[in-house]
Amino acid sequence: KIPSQSPSESFMPSEYPSLKPSQSPSDFPSLDPSDEPSLKPSQSPSDVPSLTPSQSPSDVPSDLPSLEPSLKPSDEPSLLPSQSPSVSQEPSSLPSSSPSVSLMPSISAAPSTSTEFPSDSPSLSSKPSSEPTLLPSASPSVSQEPTSNPSASPTVSSMPSISTSPTSTTPWPSSIPSISAEPTPAPSSEPSKSSMPSASPSAEPSAQPSAQPTDGFYYPDWTNEDQVCTNDGNDPEYMLEIQRVNYLYRSKEDCCRNHFWWRITQCMANEHPMYYSTGSACDVKVEFEDWESKYTPGSWDASGLYDTMEECCIAEFWFDIDGCLGDSPRDTTFEFSFDIAQLHEPTNCQDADIFANAIGVGIDNVLGGTSTAEVQSVGCATISRNYDTGNPECGGCISGTFIGDYDGRAVNLGDATGIVTTISGIITTTSTTCSDAACFEELINSAIDKFSTSVTDESLTDAIIAWAYERLPPVKQLWDTWVVTTSFDSSTGTNPFTITADSTSGLEVTVGGSFDINFDFTQVTTVADLQLLATYFTNAITSTLDDEGNLPSGASIELTTICGVDLATATDPVECSSTSSAIEYTSTMYLAHDADAEAITTSVSDALSNPTTIQGVTSAVIAEASAGVSVPLIQVTTSGSLSVTNFDTTSFTADETAEAFTFFDDAILETLVSQGLVSPGSSVVVTSISSGSIQYNLITHVDASVDTASATSEIQTALSSSSTMTAISTSVITAASTSSSTTLSTATESLAVSSSAVGTPIESDVFKVTTSGEFSVPSLDLSTLTTSAEIIEASKYFEDAIAEQLESAGLLPAGSTVTITGIVDGVVEYEIALYASTTSASETTVSRIGNLFSGSASSTVLRAISSSVESAASTSSSSAISSTLSNVSIDLFTAGATTGIPSTSGAVASSLVSALQSLSIKSFTPEEAAIRSLAKYYPDWVNKKTCVNDGREPPFIKEIGDGYMFDTAKQCCSIWFSYDEACGQSASALSALKYYPLFDAGECGVAPYNELESKSYVYDSLTECCLKRFPLALDTCCDAEGLGGCVTTGVTKYVPNFIEQKCQAKSEDFIDPSESKYARDTMLACCESNFSWDTQSCCTNSGGC
Cys bridge to 966: 48, 558, 971, 984, which one at CB 3.0-4.6 A? Predict the structure, then answer.
């Protein structure tokens, strides 16, 4: 089944398409359709209610009995007496909103029976319907003259009846009991025995009962707009004296259920932010009218209220979800907790609810604006909201009934000195202006800061106590409490624009790869060793990608295997595979449903394949392994020489010679590091340079277990290879070409390294210590440096300038290095790796470096570094660098962390940590990404007109499920959009260039796939398009201007022309599938195979075989 190519467009399409549409639809549809339409509608409905109602009495009793009771009372009296009863021969099912007052009450022959839901808009008929509605009106009528409370002075009989036996069957006492003129002074010694005893008898009844009832019970209050159940002690007299059983409750929940069931959320003071339709968008509010209450007992909802804006937009504006989301406010939440001193934990749910509401109001008053608090626990007691009823439910140490064994007031548990109770919950903050993740992140942080400040400055304590006094009845348990000022804690918050594993839409993307490393895996013998390596590499990969801006927000890195051992199942002792030197990892990230996951994962893989990133990961692993430990190493100094040709230095100035030294330093070191022969922390120092020879020292640091002779032999072998010597020559030529000295660039343009020699290594024991710091450079503005190469070059000038000052002061031992770790506007950060024979010597050096940069002579040193940077930058071939670094002025030094100096003398790191000092990463191999949708795909005919998985499927699709909800886009597209090749394609696929035929011109054109009007004939290459659509005009098609021409393999085949009885040459790429079975590699083979009856004529006609 295929939908129409040109479907009709409805301005307000139905959420649930009709299975049997009307044959004669109305021209003016209802603007306010019924929630539950009649199953048997009237053919000619009346405009005015009937004045002659049904003769059958209602089954629903009156909620308020008559003030002048019937002369023949019912066997089952009403639960609620009428405040102004009417006079009817047959009583109404529901009280009138404006009843007449009769002097002579009616006599009912038989009581009416009760329905579950009384109408909010009762019939005006004098004879009510026999079948009352089960669905109250959403807009009830409002009486102009509401009835008053039942009479507080009922008629008193002068001759009360005397019962010889207790009431027999009814569970409810008389609503108007007889009143004795002379009550007995004491209870009867032989009381009558009730056949229906009380449901809650007293465990210890009073011997002398009070003349007045106990206060603190909840009662319904109709006297104001609130219409709630309260226990403020202002119970009306008639409730206390004659209507206790009908109006007084220990439980607020019971009171609200019996008297305000249609607005129980408001009655229970359990209101919370909810979304609703304004007609053009979804908005949010806390307080709702009676008919807006979502949580009404029964199988229906009084109105469309939703817990999230997404739910509201999907249900109410499914035909324009994006428009709704753009026009509606969004909210964010974060969890909080703090401690309150001198507050007992609640002992029943009603107490917990009172405390939670009072504390929540105090928080709201402090936060103000659009933030709302929901307290979810008070000590060991938890309070949650029942989503079916709207009522609070308790758990933890008070799970069970709402009230327990207490009366309506919160229980005062006595002295709470020394008691501290933890309060926790969530804060919801709504914004109508934030439209991205960054804005909401700022909103979350602002709300958290405001909350935290209110705790520390005690304004939250003041707000809670103020409301505890103001509330009716007051919450005395909170009067003497205070919020502990150091106790505030919070979560990071949920951002509506951030996708997580719990999101209902979006993509879960898993991508991984493996690093092939040089490392002595014999040092890995325990699971603890594996876990330590995993920690080092996880942090290194994460920090390096993050620093480069290549780690998607929320992405996590997890190592899975090391040297062939699965980290999840590893056990002691660990045995590394002899054939694996790999570190494997996976990264999981959560993206928006329309994100180009393929492009993002490719970007991560490309970054990790970059030599700069690999070196960054290596350095980060070594740095973390070295942190806090003193690592014993062997410093290996190896002398070497390179024989060079076509390199004349006779006319070099001193500055040009020094610059040439630098070119060779960098070229030799970069080549050895790239081949994994030395670690990035090694150094090369050229000691002399002449027209035919370069002398240098290579300084490396290795673990004591490394065979230095073998390592030196590997270096000699590598340097003697022609590829290595060519790489060094090329590096020098490239660097010299950027020099401002034409003499230097000319002298090196034909440079060639012809041979190499390496001397005997000299070993010495050293310890590595790292120290960091930063310089304040107010004048440094990097805005004109637009490439990473320029940033690297600028960093190099600072490294050389700092090293020069340290060397002049004797503070940079041989082999030690200076590395710029960060350079931004106004700040330059560095790290120095020091190698010395003892840690104490390094500790002394670190102290002296600090004095050099911040002591009494520091201004001179800082000025010297600045001048050196300016001078070096002035020779740069980049005018941007020369200009940026033309006025460097370092004005402040700040010392950073120092690692590697042990806290106790003689502390030595493990062999594993020592081995990591020689770590190098040879290569990175990415794996194919796995992309999984967090939501199922469904056909979107209205908005996107394709299969999507944005989690916004209309309710009817979600309800039907099968046939409409799919695990993959391919499944959905094959059923609902089989005619559209673009269905389910990623953003990168849709924007890819495709070729299509221009039949009028006999050529092919090219355009992005998503811009093509027709998807019928689309090809990936010009060759394919020309071959398929214009096989008889290939030359013209392939030579079309601006398309680059057809690309062929260069293989020629011979195919028969049966009409002319000959064979002709044809490119293999242009052979049609129908020709391929006749094609042969030679002209003769073609003639013999296809014209076997006259091969000679074929050869002649073909121009010769």
Answer: 971
